[in-house]
Amino acid sequence: MARMIRYHVILAVMLSLASIVALAQSSGAATYIPKCAGCHGTNGVVASAYMKSRGTPEATDPYIRSLTDKQMFSSVKNGKEGPDGSAGMPPFKNRLTDAQIRDAVAYFRELGTGGPPLTATDQSKAVEDINAQNAAAIKNNEIIKVLNADLRIVMQDMKDGENAPDAEAKAAKYGEAETLMLRDTQAKPDASVLWIQLGRAQAGLMKYAEAESSLMKALELESAATHPNAQVQSFANTELDKIHARTGVVAGQDVASAPAPSPSPQRRYEDIAPPPPPPAPAPTISMGQTKAQVIVAFGEPQRKAVAGQKEMFFYTDLKMKVTFTNGKVSSID
Prior knowledge:
alpha+beta, 4-stranded antiparallel sheet, 13 helices, 4 strands
């Protein structure tokens, strides 16, 4: 039971699409202009008299140029006090990603070495680009949210299909799962987990050729990925093995061309021999039985003897002697 629970937990984690938590990454200029230029100047030259009075460094300051990238990254991420101990630069760790901080630092250094300043048009274009990328990321996150909801429905459908009481209920559950995954693989065709669930649903409907094609698509996507997911690949191969076991196909053989599995032979009723009759009960002798009753049960004895009022029957094959007194059994030896 514990092993089965662990299997389903791993499966549930594996078969969920990761949302894009961070918005689109910007270039150094697109990050620096809206977040840093207000203090340090658009071109790395402090324009505000107030900021100059506070000693805000410019891109060409020897102090700035003496810092390592790691030191500058830390100052931007965690903040830095002013030269007199007053509030200086606030921390940006909750407003920028690490990658954005590194890009902004690199751009600020470029300004300090005589890099080309951005024109007003360049600044506007950079902001437009990052806004468009962020809008696309938000839209993609909404799509993934829907796909994950569908995956949860399909996982339950697959479980219900396996435990369905009859073929009609089973087909209904697998059919719903197939419909959802056909739609979702069109919405996000690069998600291998969707193709795996589609293949499982098709296998449940005994569409084995289509199921194999869907599972192979999942494996192709993982093989082409920069970082293939070993769990997803293993799961897809396991589902393929199940299909091959059901259809009698060996790995590499086309399921569509494989012969259909032979049904179990049905025996006709008349071909089934009737059960043998129960064995007859062994004959017995009880005291008081007559000679006639003993002869009916055991047949004629092999030898007889008479002694006064007693008569003896000897059944040598049974190693038995029956004594009669006045015609009735009086002893059995």
